[in-house]
Amino acid sequence: DHSVHSHSSTTTTNGHNHHGQCCAVTMDGCGLTPVLDYTAEMERYRSFANFYAKTNVNMNAVNSMNFPQSAKLARITPPMFPGGRLGVAGVTPWGCHDNVNMNINAAAMLWGRKPPVHQATPLAPPTTHPPPLATHMQPHPHRTGGEGKQHGGHASSSQGQETHHHHGNNNFLSGYTTTDHMTKQGHTHQDMLSLSDRNSSCNGGGGANGVNMPNFPAGMLGLPPGVIVMAMGSHNGVNIPDSSHFQMATNHNQMLSDCHHANQTNSSPCPSTSPGMTSGGQGSGASKRKRKRCGVCAPCRRLINCGVCSACRNRKTGHQICKFRKCDELKKKAGSIQLESPPSVPSGEAFRWFF
DNA sequence: TAACACGTATTC
DNA sequence: GAATACGTGTTA
Hints:
Shape: globular
GO molecular function: methyl-CpG binding; zinc ion binding
Protein name: CXXC-type zinc finger protein 4
GO biological process, one term: Wnt signaling pathway
Radius of gyration: 20 Å
Organism: Oncorhynchus tshawytscha
Subcellular location: Cytoplasm
């Protein structure tokens, strides 16, 4: 809607939109400038607010009464978005782009890393802002609550996030105290485990390719559990938005394999023929194996059930995951899935693990 | 076509 | 064994 955009541009002086709703649904600076469904966006804000309400943020946790499943999830959810520097203080945990454009920056922001672009200095840090390292895991002193932020989601409004340069260990929040990050609640999110506990090895198994490193503590790398590690291409570090090449450090020092269908029960790392398929399954072969969530699409990265969709409401009988958490890949027909690499990305060869 | 129901695989 | 979630047939 051109009128909306022109309205926004004339009422901002620094790129921020001061007319809340417009800001909530537009994503200036995102390149594509998509317009999100407002309801969906608000729902995401609400879920995030609920998440913080149940974990470590002093908020009026009214939502938790309405969404018991969310509360349950929140209890088992570690502070993936540390200290409010990323999430509540001005940037939604889902980032500005991520539910539309699966690019690296979005994922990086989500998993605790600031987008590595033109950010030499934080934007106008609030007064008396402590040094980043000192307060990294602490709630932002100026936080006013998640859903109240009309500027949430604006990529450039991430005041208070510390700067991470695009090289060296700073890339991985070396300032983190990893124990702080993970042991506050003693365990990690089930979804995170499901992503990481695959002791499978689609990349060669047994860490042969440097992917599984059973005795290599992530902390030594300054890698907080939950941080996705993106293997940069061997050519000039070009960000290649291939979600299948994300990796994630976890408590178990394992990485999320880029095999989407890790096999837990047998030693075969990648999809194999499954003898029995579900009720209606034809049992015609490997393609009928139950698929796994991709783990990197926007719904997969969502940690909290909405609690209100039909799937949540019919948890017992429906046996379905929350609608808002349903993997985009799984929504597609099983036969229509394109495997791992887009044509422009030479799988594997273009990536390497760098530490 | 979306929502629902159910069988079943998977994980804890 | 319970909880979760995928796949698919049925129904509105």
